[in-house]
Specification:
This protein is of the alpha+beta class and 340 residues long. The protein has helices spanning 138-145, 186-194, 233-244, 253-263, 302-311, 313-325; strands at residues 27-31, 38-42, 55-59, 61-63, 67-72, 78-88, 91-97, 107-110, 115-122, 128-134, 171-174, 198-204, 227-231, 249-252, 264-265, 268-269, 272-276, 291-295, 336-339. It contains 6 helices and 19 strands. Helix 5 (302-311) crosses helix 6 (313-325).
C-alpha cells in the first residue's frame, strides 16, 4: 500500500488557527462506515448517535507546556527544545532546533538560568536526550517558562493554555492534545451519562509520532514511535460490560483507539500499562473499537490511515472531499467526524 493513496487537496484557509469560543459548537460530519453515506450536524448532536449501554472511551492525558525557548550558554545562540517523553529522573527525550548547534556536552539556559539543560547524547532521527538542572519543582518551572506545543500548521499564538486541553485532562505527560476530546464540555458529558452511556477513562501520553510525517513510500515501511498508556480497573469493567452486552465501544480520538486496540486480548480488556507502537492501517481487524469520534487529519498521515482502516479508504476520502467542499475546519482546532 502506498502513502500517496492517502492524499487529498486541502485549501490552506481551512486549517483552523484558533479554537471556537464554544467547544461543542463545532460541526460534525457523521459517516456510516458500512455504506459510506454521510450527513452534517453540530457536535452537540453527537448525543443522538449514542445509545444507552454504549461505552464512550476518553483519553484523560494532560498536555504539558513542553516547548522551551533558551540560549546556548557559551554563545548566546537561540535554541528551541520540545519535550517528548521522560526517560529518567530529570531526563527527557527531546526535539531540538537547530540540531547542528546542540552537540553532547552543550549547556542550554532557559528563563535567565531558572532552568538549565545539558545535552547528553544524540538519539535516532536526531532527537536529543537531555538532563535538566534546577532548584524547586520541575512542573512548576515548566508551567512558568514553557509554551503549549501547538502543531506547526497553527501559526496563531494561543492566548489561553486551557483551550489546548480537554475538560477532563488529568495526568500530565503529553506533547500534544488528544484533539477529538476538545469538542466536549462538562455539560455535554453529563447529558451523555444521563442518557445511560458509560464513560471510561484511559490514558495515552501523545508523543513523537504526532510530529513525524510518513517519509516511506510504502505504508508497511513506516515505523511508529512508542507511547505510554494506562488502563485502570474501572475503565476495563465499563468497556467489557459494553462488549459483553452487545453494545458499542466508541473511542473518542485515535489515541483512545490505539490504547484500546493495544490492550485488547480475546475480545476483552484487562487493566494494564505499558508502551505501544501499534500502527493501524487498512487491512487491520479491530478487536475492540466499534465507532470513532475524530477530527480531520493531515493528508498522508498515519491518522488518516487509521480512520481508513475503520471506515474504508474510499469512504473516508469521499467524506473528506465533502468536508472541504462544505468548508469544514480542519486539524487540531477544527471540526469533528463520527464514524458509526
Amino acid at each position: 500500500m502506498l502513502v500517496k493513496d492517502y492524499d487529498y487537496e486541502l485549501p490552506k484557509e481551512l486549517i483552523a488557527q484558533d479554537p471556537l469560543e464554544d467547544r461543542s459548537s463545532s460541526r460534525l460530519l457523521v459517516l456510516d462506515k458500512a455504506t459510506g453515506e454521510f450527513s452534517h450536524h453540530v457536535f452537540t448532536e453527537i448525543i443522538d448517535y449514542l445509545e444507552p449501554g454504549d461505552c464512550l472511551v476518553i483519553n484523560d492525558t494532560k498536555v504539558i507546556p513542553a516547548r522551551l525557548y533558551g540560549v546556548k550558554e557559551d554563545t548566546g545562540a537561540k535554541v528551541e527544545v520540545l519535550l517528548l517523553k521522560r526517560t529518567g529522573e530529570n531526563e527527557w527525550e527531546t526535539l531540538v532546533k537547530p540540531g547542528r548547534k546542540l552537540k553532547p556536552g552543550t549547556m542550554v539556559s532557559f528563563g535567565d538560568g531558572l532552568l538549565k539543560a545539558e545535552i547528553l547524547d544524540i538519539l535516532e532521527e536526531g532527537n536529543r536526550r537531555v538532563r535538566f538542572i534546577f532548584d524547586g519543582i520541575f512542573e512548576e518551572i515548566l508551567d512558568k517558562l514553557g509554551e503549549m506545543p501547538l502543531p506547526p500548521y497553527i501559526t496563531h499564538k494561543l492566548a489561553d493554555k486551557s483551550r489546548y486541553q480537554t475538560v477532563y485532562a488529568k495526568y500530565e505527560g503529553s506533547a500534544a492534545a488528544p484533539t477529538a476530546g476538545l469538542h466536549f464540555t462538562q455539560e455535554l458529558l453529563k447529558k451523555i451519562e444521563d442518557k445511560g452511556v458509560d464513560i471510561a477513562r484511559v490514558t495515552l501520553h501523545v508523543g513523537l509520532g504526532t510530529f513525524r510525517p510518513v517519509k516511506a513510500e510504502r505504508i508497511e515501511d513506516h515505523h511508529m514511535h512508542s507511547e505510554f498508556y494506562m488502563i485502570g480497573e474501572d475503565a476495563t469493567q465499563k468497556i467489557n460490560k459494553a462488549k459483553e452486552s452487545g453494545h458499542r465501544v466508541i473511542s473518542v480520538g485515535t489515541t483512545s483507539c490505539r490504547t484500546l486496540e493495544s490492550a485488547a486480548e480475546n475480545g476483552r480488556i484487562a487493566p494494564k500499562s505499558g508502551w505501544t507502537d501499534i500502527f493501524i492501517y487498512p487491512g487491520y481487524e479491530f478487536k475492540m473499537v466499534d465507532a470513532l469520534i475524530t477530527n480531520f487529519h493531515l493528508p498522508q498521515s498515519t491518522l488518516i490511515m487509521l480512520v481508513s482502516a475503520l471506515a474504508g479508504r474510499e469512504h473516508v476520502l469521499a467524506a473528506y472531499r465533502e468536508a472541504v467542499e462544505k468548508r469544514y475546519r480542519f486539524f487540531s482546532f477544527g471540526d469533528a467526524m463520527f464514524i458509526k
